Amino acid sequence: MTSIHTTADIHQEKVFEAHIVACLTADQGYIERNCPSHYDVALALDPSLLFRFLKATQPDAWQVLEDHYSAQAEAEVLKRLEKALKDNPTHVVLREGLKLVPNIRFALCYFKPASNLNPDLTRLSEIISSFNERHGTQFSREDFMRFERVTRDIMDDEMTEMVRNNPADVVYNAFSQAFFQAMVKMFQQDNEMRNIVMTDKDAREQATRHFFKRAQRQARGGIGPN
C-alpha cells in the first residue's frame, strides 16, 4: 500500500528511503529484510538469502552438500565463505564462487557477457553453458580464462608462425595436439576440469576450436588478449 505523505514530511530522509524501498520491492523484485534479525554483521551478509539463492540456482550441488554434511550443511557453507572472504577481496570470491569437500562448487553470482557485440565473449559464454549443462558443473568465465593461458603457453614463435602463415585446416591438428597436452598439464590439480577434458571429446573440441580461432586472429594481428 502506498503511504500518503504531507508537505510537512515529504522532504524527510526517512520518507525518501521508504519510497526507494517500496519501488525496489514492488517493481524490481527486491525482498525487504529486517536488518537486526536477518543480517549477520560478522559476515556482512544475509545468510538465509544466500541459502535461498544457492538452493534455487544449484539444487543438485546443494543436495550433494546435504548428503555429505547433513545438518551441518549451512554451517559449512558459512565457514568456507568466511574463510574465503578473509583470504580474498569480495569481488574475487563472487567471481570464483565457493569450493567445498567433496568437490562441491557453488557459484555466488552469474554474469552475462559484457556485450552481445563482442562475438568472442558471446561464444565463450555459450561454451561455458554447454559445459555446465552437460556435466552439472558451475564453471565461470574466469575458469575458462585458464584456457587463454594454455593458448599463450603453446603460442611460441614457431606455433605463431605456423598459425599466421597456414590455412586453418593445415595447422589445426598441430595446434589441437599442443593445446590438449597443455590443457592436461594446466588442469593437473583440477580433477573436475581435467576429467571433462580427457573424456568429453565434443566439449574439448568446442574449447579447442574457440581458442584456435582466437589464436589465429591474434597471430595475424586481429585481436589482443581480453
What does this structure look like?
The chain is mainly α. It folds into 3 domains: 8-38, no CATH class; 40-110, no CATH class; 119-219. Helices cover 66% and strands 3% of the residues. The protein has helices spanning 13-27, 35-38, 47-57, 59-69, 73-87, 90-96, 119-135, 141-154, 157-165, 168-186, 191-199, 201-219; strands at 98-100, 104-106. The chain is elongated and about 75 Å long. The termini are far apart. The model has no long low-confidence stretch (mean pLDDT 83).
Topology:
Blueprint: H1 13-27, H2 35-38, H3 47-57, H4 59-69, H5 73-87, H6 90-96, E1 98-100, E2 104-106, H7 119-135, H8 141-154, H9 157-165, H10 168-186, H11 191-199, H12 201-219
Antiparallel strand pairs: 1-2
What distance separates the N and C termini?
48 Å
Helix content: 55-70%
Radius of gyration from the CA trace?
23 Å
Tell me, rounded to a whole number, the average pLDDT.
83
Order of helices and strands: HHHHHHEEHHHHHH
Task: Enumerate how many helices there are, as a single number.
Answer: 12
Q: How would a crystallographer describe the biggest sheet?
A: 2 strands, antiparallel
